[in-house]
Amino acid sequence: MTYTEYESRYRLSAIELMCQLQEHERAISNDRPPASEVSAAQLDYLVLACARAVGKIFIALDAERVVGLIVVFLDHEHEGTQHVYEQYRQFGLVTDFVVAETHRGSGVASELLSLAEGFCKSLSLSIIKLSVLRANEVARRFYEKRGYEAHEVVYRKTI
């Protein structure tokens, strides 16, 4: 297994993986469109967003095939906010994270998460945040085993 930063030569393989993520989330949340409609555009958006901001896409490769992907950005509270201490106003934010079904349970997710955390530490950040769909219990257990805890809970209502 090789871990590296995303490069455009891995685009097609990464899109396949983004399709897995989209369909997985679509199965547990009715607000997600089909993978065929959005996965390529979502990956392109993330690549552009990383180029424009302080962000990275790390991938896991098995024989030149992308089998894991994590996206992490430097993010911050709204400008001028005073409700949190200054040292917590900037943080790392994981926006997308997926491991191929064939490679789950093999340590790929742990290694990718470590790379994202290392990137945040290199920016002298002390906090990393991510969100997970409430119904995704496997992902929630994974994060909790690695020291993540629910901090803010987002409620939603269809009106």
What does this structure look like?
38% of the residues lie in helices and 23% in strands. It is of the alpha+beta class and 159 residues long. Strands 1-2-3-4-5 form a 5-stranded mixed β-sheet, sandwiched between helices.
* Tally of helical segments: 4
What is the number of independent domains? 1
Highest CATH level, the class = Alpha Beta
- Tell me which CATH architecture applies here: 3-Layer(aba) Sandwich
pLDDT below 50 for ≥5 consecutive residues: which ranges? Answer: none
Q: If strands are numbered along the chain, what order do they take across the biggest sheet?
A: 1-2-3-4-5
Number of strands: 5
Residue share in β-strands: 15-25%
Computed Rg: 16 Å
The oligomeric status of these chains comes to single chain
Major β-sheet, in short?
Answer: 5 strands, mixed
Considering the protein shown, what is the CATH homologous superfamily? Gcn5-related N-acetyltransferase (GNAT)
Order of helices and strands: EHHEEEHEH
CATH topology descriptor:
Aminopeptidase
- Note the gap between the termini: 46 Å
User: What shape does the CA trace take?
Assistant: globular
Q: State the helical fraction.
A: 25-40%
Topology of helices and strands:
Blueprint: E1 2-5, H1 11-28, H2 35-52, E2 55-62, E3 65-76, E4 90-99, H3 108-122, E5 128-130, H4 137-145
Parallel strand pairs: 4-5
Antiparallel strand pairs: 1-2, 2-3, 3-4
Helix pairs in contact: 1-2
Features:
Aminopeptidase, globular, 4 helices, 23% strand, 159 residues, alpha+beta, 5-stranded mixed beta sheet
